[in-house]
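Friendly challenge for the regulars: who can give me the structure tokens for this chain first? No prize, just bragging rights.
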Amino acid sequence: QVQLVESGGGLVQAGDSLRLSCLASGRTFSNYVVGWFRQAPGKEREFVAAISRGGGGNTYYLDSVKSRFTISRENAKNTVYLQMNSLKPEDTAVYYCAARVTYNGNSRYTNMHDYNYWGQGTQVTVSS
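First reply, four minutes later:
Bragging rights claimed.
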């Protein structure tokens, strides 16, 4: 069992940066692959990025954020980060982190049904 808490959202202008954090409870956090998803009003929740278990050597991104967002993890702090640069109004959404236990180094878990645990979300609003 793991509990996830997101933080770091806010209201920014286009071109600004934000860093989201996902703090996890539990002693075996390094065994989990962690993903970030987002959901804009009236739209389905979509995959943004994921990072593999352990040292996080494998990452995977939504094409539209690949050159702007970076996912990373710090297992000693039970935390996964999403650094978001050059934000655009279309990035406005509630951002959720999610986790699942995995025994491989794969990070391509892009379907929300792949994940067992979810945080409550943090709002990111980008004004033009």
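The two ends are 40 Å apart (CA to CA). The mean pLDDT is 95. Your move, everyone else.
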